[in-house]
Write a structure and sequence with these properties.
The chain is of the alpha/beta class. The protein is built from 18 helices and 24 strands.
Length: 616
């Protein structure tokens, strides 16, 4: 018998580059929401949701035999399911969570659990993987959206026996949202075992809202096109890159419920019990962190705004390269109006957000009620650069409220900063490059040490420059940071230069104008007109918000993550396929069309995207 474990090949995954720091659960609005229908079915993705990433041996029997076994089952289960990023025992916590989900509530006899996957090894391979991890007994069915010759697309559990069948997958559009709606309309077609009276815990038909989808790919929760569908109860699993996962080198686009945050298990179990409690709070939240000297109530002198999804709802940059290179660039009037509307105006509330935002910024800079003056700046991570950010603000007549704009991760060759000296804007090089993981703390540290490096107008003036007067003797307590809720809260850390006064703007996902579903939107006042008054009141007297950490929203951050993985004492080399390249090469047209449809494009436009992709 061969004593070495089999090589494991990573399964290609329909990944998303938009990632979360933890599992994020949310309930969309729907008719009858006030009735609080229960969750009756929980549907899990397999790859990067149940698994961290799927690594399987190249074994025909694994894909075709329902009774497959291997001497390496424990090893395969460990590689696929156990997390080296948290304390040991992810599989135990998964089993406990799945058992809790199946149990239901005192009003619900129990829930059914299923797996809906695109794994290109098929549903039997997924079953055998779950068996190796001792998870299969918690599931009632496995459905595979990849059609493989000679392999069924579905298997279901009849008590202790697993049987194959053909669910109506290929009569549907190729999207998980359509599958969820089909399961609701005809559950018996997806769970053949419910014909047995002893197993019949589902009604003959369901509401789509009674099905919860747990997935790591954001576009799976909604489909556009001529027959749009939504998943109403969703759990988005975190994605991340691992620089050295089990000595495999850099492994991109990994996932796994609870792989980095052990609260995921409790969050999902609680969400299934009371999904109506997981609605997004659309208001800004402000807090003053305790600090030495807080009793002196130091005034706010400097307000630093994020740009993307804080000043804008969602940032749409002109494609014209001059926008990133020419100070004062202005698009033609029709395009200018469109960029102002799409970046700054809100379709969710009445009135002009640009006007209300302009009034707020004017009061923050020179408060007519208190006669206080403050300096306003923009700090953002935007690859288009500081000039492009300035030009968008100019289009909306908002730029002159600010004294400086700083962009991190700017494209090579683009200036990282612009500043206003009188009525003239100039470019400048930022004092130091900042690491992405601690940009705010590093900028604040540098700013306090060398304010003229961030506000060059100070060194150019002759004592009459407003910034020089206001920022003289600047301390951390004189600064308010305003950013969107995707950013990890500085109050969860204990850095010397964390912001002491912080306003977090709500982050949300919604259909936006003709752009379809957009993720991680924001914008002061975009969803709540109370935001303007809340922020102004906070800046005037932040001490009234001291210590109100419990009011801060705990929505996970969105962005790219990278965690170091500890090396094992006896690493075993594993073969890995390249996820992005494999998927693009094997299914380029299907993937392109799914992305286009999920964005809400019409069938004709989606087909156009596919055609253009084949000519690249």
């Amino acid at each position: 018998m061969d004593a070495s474990p089999p090589p494991l090949d990573r399964t290609p995954s329909a990944h998303s580059r938009h990632t979360t720091a933890a599992a994020w659960c949310f309930e969309r609005q729907f008719d009858g929401q006030e009735l609080r229908p229960p969750v009756r079915i929980v549907v899990f993705d397999c790859d990067e949701t149940l698994t961290l990433s799927t690594f399987l041996p190249d074994d025909v029997a694994l894909r075709t035999q329902l009774d497959w076994t291997s001497q390496w089952e424990d090893y395969i289960a460990t590689v696929n399911f156990e997390s080296p990023f948290t304390s040991p025992g992810r599989l135990s916590q998964l089993r406990e969570m799945l058992e809790d989900l199946r149990r239901g509530t005192h009003k619900l006899p129990g829930r059914m659990l299923a797996v809906l996957t695109r794994n290109n090894n098929g549903p039997i391979a997924c079953l055998n993987l779950l068996r190796a991890a001792k998870l299969a007994q918690f599931f009632d069915a496995i459905w595979c959206m990849s059609q493989l010759p000679g392999i069924p697309t579905g298997i279901y559990r009849a008590e202790t026996e697993w049987l194959s069948f053909e669910p109506p997958l290929f009569s549907l559009p190729d999207h998980k949202a359509h599958v969820v709606h089909s399961v609701a309309e005809q559950p018996a077609a997806w769970f053949p075992q419910i014909a047995n009276a002893k197993l019949h815990i589902l009604p003959d038909s369901l509401r789509p809202e009674e099905i919860l989808l747990v997935d790591d790919v954001r576009t799976n929760f909604q489909c556009g096109g001529s027959n749009p569908k939504k998943v109403y109860r969703c759990c988005k699993v975190a994605r991340y890159d691992a620089p050295n996962f089990r000595d495999m080198g850099l492994v991109r686009d990994m996932g796994g419920l609870g792989a980095h945050n052990e609260e995921d298990y409790k969050t999902l179990a609680d969400f299934a019990k009371r999904p109506w409690a997981y609605k997004v709070d659309w208001r800004v939240h402000c807090i003053e962190k305790p600090f030495e000297g807080a009793e002196l109530q130091p005034p706010v002198k400097l307000i630093i705004f994020d740009f993307d999804s804080a000043l804008t709802l969602y940032t749409f940059m002109p494609e014209d390269p001059r926008c990133s290179k020419e100070l004062g660039y202005s698009a033609p009037d029709s395009l200018k109006a469109r960029y102002v509307e799409y970046n700054f105006e809100t379709p969710y509330l009445e009135g002009s957000r640009v006007e209300q935002l302009g009034t707020l910024l004017k009061l923050l800079a020179h408060d007519a009620e208190t006669d206080e003056r403050r300096v306003l700046a923009v700090l953002t991570v935007n690859e288009a650069g500081a000039i492009a950010v300035l030009n968008l603000l100019m289009m909306a007549d908002l730029a002159n409220h600010f004294s400086a704009i700083w962009t991190l991760s700017t494209r090579i060759g683009e200036p990282g900063g612009v500043y206003r000296h009188g009525s003239q804007w100039k470019t400048n090089i930022l004092p130091q490059p900042c690491r992405k993981l601690a940009v705010t703390a590093e900028v604040l540290e540098s700013l306090l040490a060398h304010p003229s490096g961030w506000f060059p107008q100070i060194s150019e003036g002759s004592g009459e420059v407003m910034e020089e007067k206001l920022l003289s003797g600047l301390s951390l307590a004189n600064i308010v940071l305003v950013d969107d809720a995707r950013t990890p809260s500085p109050f969860l850390q204990d850095e010397e230069y964390d912001a002491l006064r912080h306003c977090r703007v709500a982050s949300y996902d919604d259909e936006y104008r003709d752009q379809g579903l957009l993720w991680h939107m924001g914008g002061i006042g975009a969803r709540s007109s109370e935001d303007y008054g809340t922020l102004l009141s906070f800046v005037r007297s932040p001490w009234n918000h001291a210590g109100q950490l419990t009011q801060m929203t705990s929505r996970p951050s969105f962005g790219f993550g990278a965690m170091d993985t500890p090396r094992e004492d006896n690493p075993i080399p594993l073969q890995r396929s390249k996820t992005e390249q494999d998927l693009a090469q094997r299914l380029p047209q299907a993937c392109k069309k799914r992305e286009a449809e999920a964005a809400g494009l019409s069938d004709e436009m989606a087909d156009s995207v596919v055609r253009s992709s084949t000519t690249d």
